[in-house]
Design goal:
The protein has a domain of about 160 residues: de novo design (two linked rop proteins) (Up-down Bundle), CATH 1.20.1440. The chain contains 9 helices and no strands.
Length: about 240
């Protein structure tokens, strides 16, 4: 084989490798963005659940002890909402501006823009917030686990819409967490590939991690779309 033929072969190999690197980098970037988008969606649903729980607690339809416990649990859960993006910035540093601008634009009801200050993205779900969300779930289960008492609340025109709001928000939390964890699993699989690790396509970005907390469904709370009772679907299978 002549030198010219060797150069042609080497050139072809480099082109193929370069193409594979480009494809892998593009896919990894797309998956990172999917992880960010799904985490933002999960954060939004968690905030809605806290708000729905707080409204139920302050409505006067619950007994005083349950109201106080639920208000405190909802307050603790919502207190971590503003710090929900630190781990996103750590996982995908180049998307920090996009994450913050999306959050700010959602608050002001403007179209998304890419101009923002990324230093505000310095906290994640973390153990403390995960514990707070788990405590909120446990408190709601304590309040709503008695099917007979919960049915009495559903019979009241004042409390039924509040329970429906909690159920709708909780169901969306389960869906959003499942979607996010699936996106994380996809990103982890791609980042485990030899080419991605060899070329260090992920740079210094931390490995995306799944979000884990207790979101088991209360026995007495109706799932969205049901007229009475509860579906009996295992919360673990829905999350």
């Amino acid at each position: 084989m002549t030198w010219s033929e060797i150069l042609v072969v080497v050139g072809c190999v480099l082109v193929v490798v370069g193409w594979l690197v480009w494809v892998s980098a593009t896919r990894l970037d797309r998956l990172h963005r999917k992880v960010v988008a799904s985490r933002l969606a999960l954060d939004a649903q968690l905030v809605r659940r806290s708000a729905a729980a707080a409204e139920l607690a302050t409505s006067g339809v619950l007994d005083p002890v349950s109201s106080v416990l639920l208000v405190e649990a909802a307050r603790e859960a919502s207190s971590g909402a503003d710090s929900g993006e630190r781990e996103l910035a750590a996982a995908v540093p180049d998307l920090a501006d996009l994450i913050l601008s999306t959050r700010l634009d959602a608050q002001t009801k403007r179209a998304p823009s890419r101009t923002s200050v990324s230093h505000a993205l310095d906290s994640g779900l973390g153990d403390q917030r995960a514990q707070a969300e788990s405590v909120l779930s446990a408190t709601l289960r304590t309040v709503l686990d008695d099917a007979a008492e919960t049915e009495e609340l559903y019979a009241s025109p004042d409390s039924a819409p509040l329970l429906d709001a909690v159920a709708a928000a909780w169901y969306r939390v389960q869906l959003a967490r499942r979607f996010h964890n699936e996106a994380v699993a996809q990103a982890q699989r791609v980042r485990a590939k030899v080419l991605v690790r060899t070329v260090r396509l992920a740079g210094h970005a931390a490995m995306p991690q799944t979000v884990e907390f207790d979101d088991a469904w209360p026995a007495g709370l109706r799932r969205p779309g049901t007229s009475s009772g509860h579906s009996g679907v295992s919360p673990a299978s829905a999350a």
